[in-house]
């Protein structure tokens, strides 16, 4: 089975721009979670989607948004980029997104905001 | 509420044992453990659920003290491949309230 894929792998943007990141989960997985990883804060939960619905959201400003398509692929968008948004963005898929389901992480998208 | 991991870093020689702890101030439904090697994605190690159910790799052992809201990951007879950053992720709701909150990680270095 193919793993979780994320595109693009690297991205450089300037302040004020917006960016869209894409995540394709493992085939059959219906839950996709997004995380921001930085050296100081570690892995921080952004949001989780299941069957095209956002079920849970972390403590991030409204500039961070996402969506999930009928094929379970997910995108996240960050508008009006700030320097502090520079981070590794990881998505993870799981079968149905419940406590007994392990998450499978993608390789991440490294976003640099200049 | 972010769980607290301890220690922050540990250095071992091959063959030695280590314990990594994860504590939460909130009642937990499950604890998940992941290992991330430098430049790679986190990889699943273990899930421990309220009530005693566990799921994970045979060579990894862990415990979950529901009264204290603490989990420990036991790494025995460490190998060089065990090096990496270990994260615990805690989940409070169960069911469809699926939101993992990760600790800041424990950096484990295993030397020959």
CATH architecture of chain B: Sandwich
Molecular shape of chain A: globular
Sheet with most strands of chain A? 7 strands, mixed
Work out the helicity level of chain A.
under 10%
- Count all strands of chain B and give the number: 11
Separation of the first and last Cα atoms of chain B: 37 Å
The unreliable regions of chain B are: none
SSE order of chain B, as H and E?
EEEEEEEEEEE
Name the quaternary structure: heterodimer
- Measured distance between first and last alpha carbons of chain A: 37 Å
Q: SS-based structural class of chain B?
A: mainly beta
The domain tally of chain B reads: 1
Protein chain pair with the most extensive contact, residues per chain:
A-B, 29 and 31 residues
Q: How much strand content do the residues of chain A show?
A: over 45%
Mean pLDDT metric of chain A = 94
Helical segment count of chain A: 0
Strand content of chain B: over 45%
Description of the molecule:
The complex is a heterodimer of chains A (114) and B (112). Chain A is an all-beta fold. Chain A is 0% helix and 53% strand. In chain A, strands 2, 4, 5, 6, 9, 10 and 11 form a 7-stranded mixed beta sheet that branches. In chain A, strands 1-3-8-7 form a 4-stranded antiparallel beta sheet, with no helix packed on it. Chain A is globular, with a radius of gyration of 13 Å. The mean pLDDT of chain A is 94. The model of chain B has no long low-confidence stretch (mean pLDDT 91). By secondary structure, chain B is mainly β. Chain B has a single domain (4-111), classed as Sandwich (Immunoglobulin-like), CATH 2.60.40. Chain B is built from no helices and 11 strands. The chains are: A mainly beta (114), B mainly beta (112). Chains A and B meet through strand 4, strand 5, strand 9 and strand 10 of A and strand 4, strand 5, strand 9 and strand 10 of B.
């Amino acid at each position: 089975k193919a793993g979780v894929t994320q595109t693009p792998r690297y991205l450089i943007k300037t302040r004020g721009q917006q960016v869209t990141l894409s995540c394709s989960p493992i085939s059959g997985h219906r839950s996709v979670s997004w995380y921001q990883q930085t050296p100081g804060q570690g892995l921080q939960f952004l949001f989780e989607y299941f069957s095209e619905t956002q079920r849970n959201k972390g403590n991030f400003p409204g500039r961070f948004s996402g969506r999930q398509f009928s094929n379970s692929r997910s995108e996240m968008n960050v508008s009006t980029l700030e320097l502090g948004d520079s981070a590794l963005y990881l998505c993870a898929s799981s079968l149905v997104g419940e406590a007994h389901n392990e998450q499978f992480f993608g390789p991440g998208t490294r976003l640099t905001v200049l | 509420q972010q769980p607290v991991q301890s220690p922050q870093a540990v250095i071992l020689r091959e063959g030695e044992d280590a314990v990594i702890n994860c504590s939460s101030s909130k009642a937990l439904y499950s604890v998940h453990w992941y290992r991330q090697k430098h430049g790679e994605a986190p990889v699943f190690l273990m899930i421990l659920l309220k009530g005693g159910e566990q799921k994970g790799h045979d060579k990894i052992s862990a415990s979950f003290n529901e009264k204290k809201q603490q989990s420990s990951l036991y790494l025995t007879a460490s190998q060089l491949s065990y090096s990496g950053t270990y994260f615990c992720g805690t989940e409070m709701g169960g069911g469809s309230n699926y939101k993992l909150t990760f600790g800041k990680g424990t950096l484990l270095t295993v030397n020959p």
